[in-house]
Amino acid sequence: MGSIESCQNLNKLTDACLLNTCIAKVEGIERKLASPSNIWRLTFKSGTKYLGTTKEGVPLRGVLKWWIDPLSVYDPRFSRNIDTFLSLNYELEVYSNIIRPMLERKVCPNFLPLLFSSKGCPFNNLLHFLVNNDTITTGPTSKRESVEKWAELLQRNIMYSVNMLKNKPSINDPKYAVFDNRQFITIDKPWRYNMIVTKEVSAPTLHKFLKSAFAGKRKVEEVWTVLFQLTAACYAMSATGLVHNDLHDGNAWVYDTGIESNLYYNYGNKNYFVSNVTQKVIVYDFDRSYSIALGPNRRLKSSNLCEKYSQCNEFIPNRDIVKVLGHVYSYSPPPLKEELLGMLCPTANAKELLRSVYNEGPHMMKSDGSGRFTRKDYGILNNIDTILFNIAIKDPNISIIPKATIDYLKKTVSPENIYVCNRSMFKGGIMKEGRVCTNV
Q1: In the beta sheet, which residues pair with residue 117?
Q2: In the chain, where are the structural domains located?
Q3: In this predicted model, what pLDDT tens digit does every residue of 119-134 receive, in sequence order?
Q4: Which ranges constitute the DSSP H helices of 361-424?
């Protein structure tokens, strides 16, 4: 199914490259930093539905992230940036093979939902996105003029991406001049693009949420509930053999659902009952991740990201939570700093070591100049199971209950709010096929 009729049931769209037929509006996003990807906000046509992600009268919105398919490029000048583009391919595989199954099989709710992904799409499809939703040309214009205008702007943004230039303009912004093709790598006809489309989330980052909380604009228990969900996401990733590597307070959103819910997490053979939850943590951005199941991320292997930023092709189960709490530590009030260190460290020596590392900055570098925090150093800290438990007992909204029965849960928790994640569910980092994730 790839025709316009499939817009009524998008999850049956067999060729995501044809997604343009279901789009009503495209809005580009300007990128200040050098980036290999382009990001567009998409508003789908009225009546478009995708599983349970839409409500009646509310248009479905998504975020399209696309980049050059590095396997379609034959220009040798492109080779200096190919690892960056390959890391986006890696992110696509993480979303498709790890994040989406965790969401669909009720393992963890705290990730950005993937709607579509595709590889090897022809650039004509991107032109169709733009020409069919023309927001630049005004008044009478021929389709040929519109195609030519959008083709120029598309090539301009492709050139920004391929050449890793800063201040990439929004695709909708015609003010920026088109480059002289002779000075840059330019698009060749055989080139294709890859893409992921995720659900749009309008929410403050974890950083903004916590800064607001520390200014007294949030209840204390809301902070602990948010940190518990963040840790639960890290636990779920570790159970699959996935390390985010770049999880910081800007790579997680805190979404206000507007309604109170009860959540149940059966994690690490403990039962966490979280009551009166209104915020939902959402983790995203996996282009620097490492998965045991997917193998090495080439960008991490061929750059200095490991030694300089502790972003490595190695599986350390508690690395993500230790790193992201380091960001939180940096602007926390002094009492919370001590509480965070106590949750992460089983001994006084471990606490002093981590304090010195946190005070050096967010990249987990040792204060004595001996380099990054190593596997051995993480090993003297609490494991992810203990950290999750330590944060849970600080939150008055979280109860750690004995072995719960399904009958008990049905009385207190909606089925869609029951999440189960234990390492026995996974084999080699990929969830075992056919596993029923409600056997608590």
Answers
A1: 196
A2: 4-199, 206-431
A3: 999 888 888 888 876 5
A4: 375-379, 384-392, 406-412
Cβ within 8 Å of residue 219, ≥6 positions away: none
Q: Which two tokens stand for residue 362?
A: 């967010």
| pLDDT averaged over every residue in the chain | 84
| CA–CA gap between residue 388 and residue 227 (Å, rounded) | 9
Residue that the structure tokens 């608590």 belong to = 440
**Per residue in 316-353, pLDDT tens?**
999 999 999 999 999 999 999 999 999 999 999 999 99
Count Cβ neighbours within 10 Å for each residue of 131-167 and write b for 16 or more, e otherwise.
bebbeeeeeeeeeeebbebbbebbbbbbbbbbbeeee
Name the DSSP class of 295: B
**SS3 of residue 345 by DSSP:** coil
Q: Is the pTM of this model over 0.85?
A: yes
pLDDT in tens, 197-209: 999 988 999 999 9
Strands (E), 215-351: 242-243, 252-267, 270-283, 290-291
* 210 band by pLDDT with thresholds 50, 70 and 90: very high
Q: Smallest Cα–Cα separation from 30: which of 206, 212, 123, 165?
A: 165
Q: Please, are residues 282 and 244 in contact by the beta-carbon 8 Å criterion?
A: no
Q: Is 424 helix (H, G, I), strand (E, B) or coil?
A: helix
Q: Yes or no: is domain 206-431 CATH 1.10.167?
A: no
Q: How far apart are CA 263 and CA 416, in angstroms?
A: 9
CA distance 241 to 425: 12
Beta-carbon contacts of 80 under 8 Å, excluding residues fewer than 6 positions away, are: none
CA distance 290 to 243: 5
What is the mean predicted confidence (pLDDT) over 63-73?
90
In the chain, the percentage of residues whose pLDDT exceeds 90 is 47
